[in-house]
Specification:
Layout lengths: L12 H17 L6 E4 L3 E2 L3 E4 L5 E6 L2 E4 L9 E2 L2 E2 L5 E2 L3 E4 L2 H5 L5 H7 L5 H22 L8 H19 L1
Antiparallel strand pairs: 1-9, 2-8, 3-4, 4-5, 6-7
């Protein structure tokens, strides 16, 4: 379980926009079957975060004790989705996905993580995935993104652009 955020259970937001993005990316690249790796940034599950000059979390202080990202012993030990020590610091986690859909739904995707984290109920997530799928399809159709096979030119420009947007979001 993580600290429950102050927003409603129904309809789950993260799974809906994750599924919409998965559908759009699959249509943009002409295939869902593109594997990729993503690494999260550190965050404080509870406590007070300390930031570096780029705004990234580098420490977390709670009850007079400080945990640091650079010390693996200070990171929360997460086994089977459960934090097994008293550290409030969640260090970067790297995951590899076989497809856009794998990142959106399923045991390693954003949908199930919302249920396992105690943020949403399964029904709120299932309905959100269905809504996200419909939104992704509608946007893809209206934007003319429906393609039958990936374009090397699109891949050449889209992947670096997506990466730079992710870096800009961290700053």
């Amino acid at each position: 379980m993580i600290a429950t955020p102050p927003h409603p259970d129904y309809i789950a937001g993260h799974p809906s926009f994750s599924q919409a993005a998965a559908v759009l990316l699959a249509n943009l690249f002409g295939t869902n079957d593109l594997s990729f790796t993503s690494t999260s940034t550190a965050y404080c599950n509870t406590g007070t975060p300390g930031f570096d000059s780029q705004g990234l979390v580098i420490s977390c202080t709670q009850n007079g004790k400080t945990w640091y990202v650079g010390d693996p012993a200070d990171c929360a030990a997460i086994i089977g989705g459960v934090i097994t020590n008293d550290s409030p610091l969640i260090c970067p986690i790297t995951e590899t996905f076989a497809s856009f859909t794998d990142a959106s739904i399923g045991p390693d995707g954003s949908s199930d993580s919302r249920v396992w984290g105690g943020i949403h109920t399964a029904s709120a997530v299932n309905d959100a995935v269905a809504v996200g799928d419909a939104i992704g399809q509608a946007v893809a159709e209206n934007a003319g993104l429906l393609v039958s096979e990936p374009s090397p030119l699109v891949m050449l420009f889209a992947l670096p652009t997506l990466y730079s947007l992710r870096l800009r979001k961290r700053a």
